Request: fold
Amino acid sequence: MNQKKPLACVCVTGIMCVSAARADVVVGSFDLTDAGGPSALFDTLPVAFGMQNDFIQDPEGFVLFGGGEVGAADVGTVWTSSSAEMDAMRAWLQDDNEFDLVGLTTEITLANGSVFGYFYGVAELSFPFYGLDLETVATQADELRVTLLSFSAVSPGDDPNQDGVWTDYEMSYRFEFVSVPGPGAMATLAFGATALGRRRR
Reply:
């Protein structure tokens, strides 16, 4: 003879943590195009990015990162400053000197063997012209990101010396001051389930 058993009830409870995604925020950006035509032949240029302190031409007057030999094949490459490099740049952005430059440096070895090097960038006092708010950038940016937008080097180009030793070049970069949020907020969800079953013997 079959006998019915009482309902069996199983309750399952738990806690699930969900990490809320938070995107990086660009707090300021500008595009920079550097172009020229030296008496030299090349299809890449050595570059580095960062800041120059008040046109000071000594090693301690720069905070530089990334770069290397850059050419057309590198279009789309992104270079990012480290926390220490951004801390150093932030200190210059927050001082009273508005002649500090944000940009790039490069060197070109000319046909006569001499080296022409320079730093090209945007001075802090020109930030408003580029839609940048200095205080926002100086206090909220956690890193500086630089993206190569385009690169061209044409030899002999205009060839003004009529000797075939010339290169017309142009390279464009996007500089982005980025705020990087901390770990995503943890959302806690409680969940439960009840399983009911009838067992028969």
Remarks:
- The chain is about 10% helix and 50% strand.
- The first strand starts at residue 8 and ends at 19.
